[in-house]
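Tutorial, part two.
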Amino acid sequence: MIDSPTSCGGAPASCAGAPPVPFARSAPGAGYRDRVSIRAWWASRRSFGFDVLVAAIAVALGLTLRMGRGAGLIGWPYLHQASAVLSGALLLYRRRAPFGAGAAICAVGLVYPTHALYFAAYAAGACVEDRRRAWGLIGGLVVAATRPWSRPAPLDVVAAASLALVPVLLGLYVAARRRLRADRAEQVVRERELGFERVRLEERARIAGEMHDVITHRVSLMVLQAGALRTRARDEDVRASAEELRLVGCKALEELRGLVAVSRSERQMGSVVVGPRAVLDVSDLVAGSRSAGIPVDLVTLGEPHPTSPVVGRAAYRVVQEALTNVHKHAPGAGVDIRLHYVGDEVRITVRNSAPTRAVDVALGSGGSGLLGLRKRVELVAGTLRTRPLPDGGYELLATLPAGAPTTTTGEPV
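Running the prediction step on this input gives:
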């Protein structure tokens, strides 16, 4: 009776003491995995069978043919047969331990050389990865094959060395072919990954274009309706609010077009939209927050100097994200923004006080938040630290290099 497998650790039912399961449904892909395992099993058995065949041939040659008269250093009886059998047995390990098996065969060959030396020379050239060790082993095998202790003629030495180097060259050729196939396979994998990356960038650009079309349509309608409300409204406060709403919508359209332009530029590997260096300007963010009823104090310390476009966008997003978090989580809180220019760095500190009332309107979430902002800052070799304040407020401190590189596809957008 054959026990059926159970789910307890993959052990047979008879081992676990559980009753046999009459039928078990195979998991998806189990047939493919079974076929792969069968192929691997057959390949390993075929390789082992070939190694046994090579060892048998070496033993047969060693028993029937002697490598010259007085080939061995020791003239013990039956040493020839023992050397042939031992060398053939060592050839079974020429794949798993080529250097160790070759060194052992070389040692046996110094006592009494057999034809297994030629097979070991091939394995040294084909299977030993360390070239220094391989050539050292090849040298020992060639010495054992030429038998200098028997004082052969110079022509015999050249002939024996040449005969021993033939399998060495064949093994080196096989190793080179193997490395070439591995390099080609790696190149195919790299090309496939590059193809996937290219498709991903093209899909990203396509999605960015669709988002641009959808969002700009809705925001454009909002801007048009705000402009119409400003024209038709009689109350001056309503007209001012409509004008602010229209300006915010226009600013959102401008930023959206810039983001889409950067996303589309990444379709070309290694390219990015690069603009001129400019001084950081967050006055529009401050004005927008003030118009929403949040008191914001902006202080600039040091001599402002232009920053690269990458750093400028990252610094702008730092202030924008900080003010957005105040709008979401700290209504009524005061905000203090400090832009400190120190050497080649720009230090941005955004500190808000404790909220004075509960959240009125849920603005929603789903963005990357501070985690995405931290990644954006780190992409330009900057640092970002956040911490709560003892009075219930919150502080954000970002340090950015003024001259970060601008030609990288990993640039934050």
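Confidence is low (pLDDT under 50) at residues 1-29, 268-273, 406-413. In part three we will examine how such features are distributed along the chain.
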